[in-house]
Amino acid sequence: MYAIFIVGTAGSGKSMLTAALLEWFSRKGENAAALNLDPGVLNLPYEPDIDVRNYVSVDELMEKYRLGPNGALLLASDIIVDQIEQVNREIEEVNPAYLIIDTPGQMELFAFRVSGPLIAKEIKADGKIVLYLFDAPFCLNPFNYASNIFLSAAVFLRFTLPQLNVLSKVDLLPTEKVKEILEWASSPGSLKSALEKYVVESNVYLLSKDIFDAVARLRLDFSLIACSAKTYSNFTGLHALNLRALNRGEVGV
Question: Which residue of 95, 146, 190, 242 has the fewest C-beta atoms within 10 A of its own C-beta?
Answer without folding.
Answer: 95
